[in-house]
Design brief:
By secondary structure, the chain is an alpha+beta fold. The chain folds into two domains: about 5-85, Alpha-Beta Plaits; about 95-200, no CATH class. About 55% of the residues lie in helices and about 10% in strands. It has helices spanning about 5-10, 25-35, 65-75, 85-120, 125-145, 145-155, 165-180, 195-200; strands at about 15-20, 40-45, 50-55, 75-80. It has a four-stranded antiparallel sheet. Helix 4 (about 85-120) packs antiparallel against helix 5 (about 125-145), helix 5 packs antiparallel against helix 7 (about 165-180) and helix 6 (about 145-155) packs across helix 7. The N and C termini lie far apart (about 70 Å). Residues about 1-5 have low confidence and may be disordered.
């Protein structure tokens, strides 16, 4: 009976991908760790400047579709660099990010104005103000921040700590703190002391 050729079994191929959504070295590190833990991955080189990844893998153990799926589960936009549509997808992503950033900035300005007015005594704190702050915080966290939350969840599932996970944990802490301090006058609840909702929602 013949034996398998070890050279054939260890044959590798290269896969080059354009990756959208990377912003710093945390992203390149997260991608390198996530792929490096997979069976069949030999080497991973990620370029933040060129937004590309070059992966050397063993096709007998992992398929390009699996590699792409892992990257997308982390929240990144993965494209074939040979296709012109990649540039259109990148432009659309940038437009969405700009819109989300502008609306988040507008909500943050309103919260800061409300807090500043209370601090300098222009108007007293009213229960309805906390609910307005909750509505704006919910919009910013779950709509504007949906991509960051998705990327944080993808990193957490794979045991990776990156800036998206840290941002999500910090934002969630502020949101929960605001909820603990929310007044409910209808049932006589004024919120837990030490948890000013507007201050926490501003986080």
């Amino acid at each position: 009976m013949g034996t398998a050729d070890p050279t054939f079994e260890r044959a590798t191929e290269n896969l080059q991908l354009k990756i959208g959504g990377m912003s710093c070295s945390f992203c390149t590190g997260a991608i390198t760790r996530a792929l490096g833990r997979q069976r069949g991955i030999e080497e991973v080189h990620v370029s933040l400047a060129h937004e590309e990844a070059l992966i050397r893998y063993r096709p007998q153990e992992i398929a390009p579709a699996d590699i792409t799926r892992i990257l997308r589960s982390l929240g990144y936009l993965v494209r074939d660099p040979r296709k012109v549509a990649a540039f259109e997808e990148e432009a659309a992503l940038r437009r969405r990010e700009r819109r989300d950033l502008l609306s988040a900035a507008a909500a943050a300005v309103l919260v800061v104005i409300a807090m500043g007015g209370m601090w300098i005594g222009l108007w007293p704190m009213r229960p309805w103000m906390a609910w307005v702050a909750w509505a704006m915080a919910s919009y910013v966290l779950f709509w504007n921040g949906r991509r960051i939350l998705r990327m944080a969840w993808g990193a957490a599932r794979r045991g990776i700590t990156n800036q998206h996970l840290l941002l999500a944990v910090g934002a969630a802490g502020g949101y929960v703190g605001g909820l603990l301090g929310m007044p409910l006058p209808a049932v006589g609840w004024q919120g837990l002391p030490g948890f000013p909702p507007i201050d926490f929602f501003a986080v």
